[in-house]
Amino acid sequence: MNTKLTDLKWYGRNFDYNKVRYFNYSCSGFEFCMTGKKAVATILSDPEKQKKAERGVIGVYITEIKKPGDYKGTSFWEHFPEEEPMRFVLDAPEKEYVLFESPVEKTVVIKVLKLSECAFGYAGLKKVDLKGVLRGPQQPHGVPELVEGRTKSRAPRIEFIGDSITCGYGLEGIWGKDTFKTIQERPDKAYAFLTAKAFGAEFQLCSWSGIGITSNYVDPETIFLPETSWLMPACWPYTDKKGHLRLKQEPEVWDASKFPPDIVVINLGTNDISWVRGKEERRLAYVAGLRQLIEAVHRRSPKAKICCCLGIMGQELCDSVSQACKLFSKDFPNVTIKAVKFDMQKEEDGIGADWHPSPVTHRKAAKKLVAALREWTSLRA
Length: 381
Hints:
It is built from 8 helices and 14 strands. The strands form 2 sheets. Strands 1, 2, 3, 4, 5, 6, 7, 8 and 9 form a 9-stranded antiparallel sheet that branches. The protein is globular, with a radius of gyration of 20 Å.
């Protein structure tokens, strides 16, 4: 049985091109329920354009259920397993990947998520072939409106805008022993994913390693100009700017009606620190840039509450985050916004590859963010 792409339930930002659906951002992907013996996905990627250590990676999460009627298809977290996923490195331009195989017929829920980030190898689903029958509801059309903070028909929605920390960069690596590999990247163990899980929230990540607001990461010792070729304010408004450019297509503006968030979390500034370097004019440029991004978020999602956070890998700009939030509030006093200062990572909690946060640090950050968001009574954890 060859399923249609529209028969699958999709998560995260994605787009269609030449009968292929591309899902390139961290934790974007698809889900389906089947009764049968085998499921095979044909996925496109670009390994020839990537270093071996930077090829795309997907994770496959499988949960067996007793009967098809147990699958409701209403939440990302429904039948989400605690076990580690199977992981596949996307090592061919087009290849079949066996998602599930059993000698006896079973009913299973299968989730496929992009674990490597958008900056590296892409992922495009061409088709899914089943030796069995597709089960459960198809993805509903339209999005129910939020009433008094939350409807009974759906979970809350959280959008995360961030950098490598949000991507789970280097999470499974060890500082001083490993350099970055996409196979060590685990957004499904990072603070954003854990925060969404705590609330049972639907979520979306727009995150990119090394990215900033006024400058991407630069070596403070050797580089004396900001890196501005790919900044988040010019990336976030689009569905998948890099993905479209890879295909020589004009980037499309993201249709926010596909995922109107109740909360938008912005975690940006870690890479700007490498350029600001304590210089006041650069710091003020960061404040202004963050203030402008907050307004852009609000204008696109006027019903959303906004949370700006920073601090895991550097705290030099934490006060500047608070300043940007206050400046925004002066102009938009009716919008709910807050700043959250994360604790700096500690060596005793482990340090990941390239001095990135460990699983312990991510869990601590999630706990702090959950506590902050819980104060907004529309969310319950």
